[in-house]
């Protein structure tokens, strides 16, 4: 691949993945000391300078990657029927869209893999690959066209590579497009062509790097996922990644890095808090059930905001559900979160109670939630429902069962924030292509914020992002816990459970736009059908919606 072809459009957006929030974040709590140091710097002229240091008494937010789940892969008709056919982000003015001449405006996600990551102008190489394909496979050689995705150009060349032997591929490495090799390797694995997979993996080893360009870094972790799947070692994710489990303080530090340079968790906190504050304007007793409480930082923001209410703050009670990764990061149970929140509320003179359920999300029953009469109830689902097993797993269908349980509590509002991606019931190759597209945007977002040789950035990607990628590629059944759905499918689930949409107001949109001023100005927030989409140019990455 030529240097000019390797040049990649810098994009600034983060998935979920897993982003912590520090309890002294300046955007909402200006009176608390802000700590900065040298881990990452120079986001650029369009974003803030970010740096970090190790310190004690931290509170961040982590999203669990270890929630119990069990799935079987199959195509869901309901997922197709309710999913949007268009991204809310317009293609006009988008370099990532326009750089892919094969892109279809009907693409569900909007941001093509080839457009957001690789400038493809290798017509000579395409012709050579096609000649080799015809000579080796014949004129009717198989071309990848079964995947409803926007990687037409890359997929065609990937199909061409299917006919090349190992020596030919190695000789062509300087001219190969990494994107195309990744697609070809995934297709070979999907076809169970282990000999071809082995050859393509050998080629990938020479093309990827954890300190390279965004696609090279993504490719390094995709390669680990492919290896783990080929060797049926998906259950040994840490072993497959060849990295040691980080200590609690290390994990907290890595999550903090990703939080500071990416807006995902702030998008979740800001939008949900704005809705809850609006709905609870005249309530004197508020009960919040948080199904992904992590470090509890979101509620510090809300406590601070409600402390300024005319006539005095309301009584607030928070019920938290824990997860193993957050537990590890904080170095203990939810009592740590309860103590932090209680002390914080006391400093704002806000009456406060904390309740620890000590039950996993999939096992929650009404009696675990400490419901009291006379309290206005809000329920929060931040990047957590996609870990719940659904009807493709078991007749228990915990995903929909939980929604019905919450509806039975008659909440005043339910807030939902999820990644806008479709990896739940998709067959392997479709899921693989979706993973490549989604995480290309994520790695590009990190790239604009941190130097490529930054060791803390490398560790953060390895421990907080790569394992999600490996999980989606290597695992099936109960082991695959990363199961995202598009907002259209979530809308269908909520309505089947008896909920109706609560349209987000202009105040919520304004709060999110104000928050995004801290980040690269290529981020977009778009309101559509009462929900908010967070995206980069034309790729929708996360959605926020409310229900009642």
Structure write-up:
- The chain has 548 residues and is of the alpha/beta class.
- It has a domain at 262-420 and 485-547: 3-Layer(aba) Sandwich (Rossmann fold), CATH 3.40.50.
- It is 42% helix and 9% strand.
- It has 22 helices and eight strands.
- It has an eight-stranded mixed beta sheet, with helices on one face.
- The model is unreliable at 1-39, 41-87, 90-124 and 128-153 (pLDDT under 50).
Provide the helix percentage.
40-55%
Taking the alpha carbons of the first and last residues, their distance comes to: 52 Å
- What is the radius of gyration computed over CA atoms, rounded to a whole number of angstroms? 23 Å
Main sheet strand line-up = 3-2-1-4-5-8-7-6
Q: What percentage of amino acids are in beta strands?
A: 5-15%
Give the C-level CATH assignment of the domain at 262-420 and 485-547: Alpha Beta
Biggest β-sheet description: 8 strands, mixed
Number of helices: 22
**Poorly predicted parts:** 1-39, 41-87, 90-124, 128-153
Keywords: Transcription, Transcription regulation
InterPro entries: TF_GRAS (IPR005202)
Region (Disordered): 83-119
Region (Leucine repeat II (LRII)): 336-368
């Amino acid at each position: 691949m030529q240097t000019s072809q390797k040049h990649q459009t810098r994009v600034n957006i983060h998935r979920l993945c897993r982003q912590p929030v520090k309890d002294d974040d300046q955007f909402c709590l200006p009176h608390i000391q802000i700590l900065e140091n040298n881990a990452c710097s120079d986001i650029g002229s369009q974003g803030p300078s970010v740096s970090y240091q190790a310190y004690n008494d931290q509170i961040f937010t982590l999203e669990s990657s270890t929630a119990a789940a069990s799935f079987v892969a199959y195509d869901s008709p309901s997922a197709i029927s309710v999913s949007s056919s268009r991204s809310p982000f317009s293609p006009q003015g988008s370099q990532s869209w326009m750089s892919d001449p094969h892109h279809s405006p009907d693409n569900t996600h909007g941001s093509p893999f080839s457009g957001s990551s690789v400038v493809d102008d290798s017509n000579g190489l395409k012709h050579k690959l096609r000649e080799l394909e015809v000579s080796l496979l014949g004129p009717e050689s198989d071309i990848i066209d079964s995947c409803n995705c926007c990687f037409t150009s890359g997929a065609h060349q990937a199909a061409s590579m299917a006919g090349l032997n190992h020596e030919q591929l190695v000789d062509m490495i300087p001219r190969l497009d990494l994107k195309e090799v990744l697609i070809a390797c995934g297709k070979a694995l999907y076809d169970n062509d282990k000999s071809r997979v082995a050859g393509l993996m050998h080629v990938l080893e020479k093309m990827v790097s954890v300190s390279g360009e965004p696609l090279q870094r993504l490719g390094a972790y995709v390669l680990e996922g492919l290896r783990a799947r080929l060797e049926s070692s998906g259950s040994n994710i840490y072993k497959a990644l060849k990295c040691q489990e980080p200590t609690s303080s290390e994990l907290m530090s890595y999550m903090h890095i990703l939080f500071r340079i990416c807006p995902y968790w702030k998008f979740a906190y800001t939008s949900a808090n704005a809705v809850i504050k609006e709905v609870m304007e005249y309530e004197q007793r508020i009960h919040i059930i948080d199904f992904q409480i992590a470090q509890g930082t979101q509620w510090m923001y809300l406590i601070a905001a409600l402390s300024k209410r005319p006539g005095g703050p309301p009584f607030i009670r928070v019920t938290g559900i824990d997860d193993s990764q957050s537990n590890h990061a904080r170095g203990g149970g939810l009592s740590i979160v309860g103590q932090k929140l209680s002390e914080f509320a006391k400093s704002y003179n806000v009456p406060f109670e904390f309740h620890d359920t000590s039950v996993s999300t999939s096992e929650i029953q009404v009696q675990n939630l400490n419901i009291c009469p006379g309290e206005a109830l809000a329920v929060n689902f931040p990047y957590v429902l996609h870990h719940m097993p659904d009807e493709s797993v078991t007749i228990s269908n915990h995903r929909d069962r939980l929604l019905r349980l919450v509806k039975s509590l008659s909440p005043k509002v339910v807030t939902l924030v999820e990644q806008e991606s479709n990896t739940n019931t998709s067959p392997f190759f479709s899921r693989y292509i979706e993973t490549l597209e989604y995480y290309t945007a994520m790695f590009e977002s990190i790239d604009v914020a941190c130097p490529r040789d930054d060791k803390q950035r490398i560790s953060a990607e390895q421990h907080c992002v790569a394992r999600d990628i490996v999980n989606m590629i290597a695992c099936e059944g109960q082991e695959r816990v990363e199961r995202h759905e598009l907002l259209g499918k979530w809308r269908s689930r909520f309505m089947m459970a008896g909920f109706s949409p609560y349209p987000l107001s202009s105040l919520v949109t304004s709060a999110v736009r104000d928050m995004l001023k801290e980040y690269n100005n290529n981020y977009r927030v778009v309101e559509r059908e009462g929900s908010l989409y967070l995206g980069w140019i034309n790729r929708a990455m996360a959605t926020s919606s409310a229900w009642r």
